[in-house]
Amino acid sequence: MWPCTLFMLQPDSGTTEIKNTLYTDFMEDTIKIKKGLDIPMFGAPSAEITQDTSTTLFAICPDDFPGAVWKARVHPGDKVQRGSVLFADKDNATLCLTSPVSGEVTEIARGERRHILHITVRREGDEAEKFEIPDETEGLRAILQASGLWAMMRQRPFDIVPSVNAIPRDIFVTAFDSAPLAAPMLQPKDMSALETGLETLASLTPGTVYLGVRPDSGITSKAAQVIAFDGPHPAGNVGTQIAAIKPVNKGETVFTLDARTAVRIGRLITDGYLDTAALVAVTGSEVNNPHLINTTIGARLDTMLAGSLKASDDTRLRIISGNVLTGTRCSLKDGFLHFPYRQITVIAEGADADEFMGWASMSPDKFSVKRTFPAWLKGLGKPFKFDARIKGGRRAMILSEEFDKVFPFDIYPEYLLKAMMANDIERMEELGIYEVAPEDFALPEFVDTSKEPLQHIVRQSLDNLRKELS
């Protein structure tokens, strides 16, 4: 097997073609990701799948789809179908967010300065919008934008919803999730729709569609180049896969998405209807019988989690739509399933924790990546019960190289973050800001001794850079 560094060369005007040739010749090899960390947590889901039959309220949250200025196109009391437009981009009305269910719009929730937090729909019936699927590429782009599936993709640089006119150099699809407690992303019944989705994506780019899978996944494709990735989290992150195959340089654009979105694209092209079903992993140490649940995009959490939580007082629980590293904190009473609609994690808040000697306790039940506590003697493979406490105060960032151990990019994360904090655009460009997204810094944020909100810093810097360059 060729070493991983072969795929991590920084391409320039003279190396891109050579690099592609090398990749094509050895595409059957598995790329080994050595830097990373699998966080051992209690609450992994079983293979049991239940049906969510009680949830009637569903919501779409525009903040889950950065890069567009979303304007509501409905009012409370309006009747909608599955696939009907709820939001449209202010500058490009063809770019939409659509209803996950058929029914009645019950609420347009607003926050400060009338910013829309979500639009809620009560399910009534199962009527759906029928999309006429054209043959030409431009028509396919228009259908993806009108159905809301375009907004489920991301564009790098900037990690935003792709521009409606963007032509990507390549498209990267990840078919597995390596985040803590994540469940399988695909089922055997999805394979046909996945291939159709990949064929559709291939028509959107003059380059290549890459599909990242786990070794021995058995997934094959004629429309995409399938590459296996082995190693700890973040091996399943699409950013890690891009960095290992063909990094993004200034002036280049790539699209990214997960295989679940590709499956939805395939079913839209095949049937003409929007697929809003979601297989969600209900996970975490504070969940009774962690399991999988068949539900719908944007489902309300209180009905979906009814009877599943260990504590009746939800103030003692941290409910997260997503995984513990990148998910969105939600309230049980008025929270909804957020994009990418794959996981719910519930852990203890930790505010009522009473430990002998506090943070200095030498309890063998405390986890540390630096072997600060004796728990490492029993092996990091044994699961731990984590809570939501930071366990430390924020302080100035120091160059300790602790990020490098969990950051598998060929860039210097600490120097890049310092350039972001200083808003030094030229320095950020030199250090690789066009390659990264907030989720790429989730593990560095977890191991950070300084307790800095790294993902928030990256998100702000990407937004500021985009404004400066626009």
Short summary:
The protein is α/β, with parallel strands linked by helices. It has helices at 16-25, 137-147, 191-202, 238-245, 259-271, 301-304, 413-421, 425-431, 442-447, 454-469; strands spanning 30-32, 49-51, 57-60, 70-72, 79-80, 85-89, 96-98, 103-110, 116-123, 154-156, 170-174, 209-213, 225-230, 254-258, 277-283, 291-296, 317-321, 328-330, 343-348. It is 20% helix and 19% strand.
SSE layout and pairing:
Layout lengths: L15 H10 L4 E3 L16 E3 L5 E4 L9 E3 L6 E2 L4 E5 L6 E3 L4 E8 L5 E8 L13 H11 L6 E3 L13 E5 L16 H12 L6 E5 L11 E6 L7 H8 L8 E5 H13 L5 E7 L7 E6 L4 H4 L12 E5 L6 E3 L12 E6 L64 H9 L3 H7 L10 H6 L6 H16 L1
Which stretches are low in confidence, meaning pLDDT under 50 for 5 or more residues running? 1-28
The residue-averaged pLDDT reads 90
Backbone shape: globular
Which radius of gyration do the C-alpha atoms yield?
Answer: 22 Å
Largest sheet: 6 strands, mixed
Percent strand equals 15-25%
User: First CA to last CA: what distance?
Assistant: 43 Å
> What is the count of DSSP helices, taking H or I runs of 4+ residues?
10
* Element order: H for helix, E for strand: HEEEEEEEEEHEEHEEHEHEEHEEEHHHH
* Estimated helix fraction: 10-25%
Q: Which structural class fits the helix and strand makeup?
A: alpha/beta
- In the sheet with the most strands, the strands line up as 1-13-12-11-14-10
